[in-house]
């Protein structure tokens, strides 16, 4: 999709590391992002949330989960990120424990939850050309999260503006209301609509913003375009050549997640996707490397 938005304008395929490089180093730590850069990614995906004192931090889960978090001061494991200050969150070691489901995952002992500003500054220094897929974690079924939608988005937009990355990032969310708000607040920043199988595009879905599934729109690609997305990012099981064709016809680039098996990576490339998100970006880079003549 040589004429597509973002990194595809130059015709390149976009390999993005998921939460840094989750399969290689504990997720969303600076060391995990460094591993993604070292693997040769063209982009990274990360998650952002608001703390109790309004800081934008890079963290996936709404709570501090025991398999990922180790207290070094007061035991805050199990607490909600939104109810803790940045200072409190900084007491938690989020790098020392690896996950059993990721046998190649290396620890980053002593790592703390980072702010978005810190992750962006670290990335600009190490890999200034990478694209940033910034997932705003907003659950429209959670009154606290939906009430904080604008505040989180404004914080993210302020960070990317300060870093000079407004034309090198995607506002990325399962909550399409985030994308509609982003279109209003920052029309020049590209938006990416996440889609989860059996969750996003179902009748009565709370995730699709002003779009009503089966009423205002029948096709998920048309729905994503209607909320102002330039990218659709579906769970990879939803993607085949027909999906890609429909997305491209709607003016959307296709960035499936989370693709870890090399054979599936090849299938998706052959289906015509524009990039992919992987826990193992090193595998993706290797699979996509041109074969020597």
Structural features, described:
The protein has helices at 30-39, 86-89, 116-126, 143-147, 149-163, 176-185, 220-226, 241-249, 262-271, 281-288; strands spanning 14-18, 43-50, 56-58, 70-71, 92-93, 131-136, 169-173, 190-195, 231-234, 253-254, 275-278. The mean pLDDT is 96. Helix 1 (30-39) runs parallel beside helix 3. The strands form two sheets. Strands 1, 2, 3, 6, 7, 8, 9, 10 and 11 form a nine-stranded mixed β-sheet that branches. With 293 residues, it is α/β, with parallel strands linked by helices.
Keywords for this entry:
alpha/beta, 9-stranded mixed beta sheet, two-stranded antiparallel ribbon, 10 helices, 11 strands
Strand content: 15-25%
Taking the sheet with the most strands, its summary is: 9 strands, mixed
| N-to-C CA distance | 25 Å
Structural class: alpha/beta
- Supply the number of helical segments: 10
List the helices and strands and how they pair.
Layout lengths: L13 E5 L11 H10 L3 E8 L5 E3 L11 E2 L14 H4 L2 E2 L22 H11 L4 E6 L6 H5 L1 H15 L5 E5 L2 H10 L4 E6 L24 H7 L4 E4 L6 H9 L3 E2 L7 H10 L3 E4 L2 H8 L5
Parallel strand pairs: 1-2, 1-11, 2-6, 6-7, 7-8, 8-9, 9-10
Antiparallel strand pairs: 2-3, 4-5
Helix pairs in contact: 1-3, 3-5, 5-6
Short recap of the structure:
The chain has 293 residues and is α/β, with parallel strands linked by helices. Helices cover 30% and strands 16% of the residues.
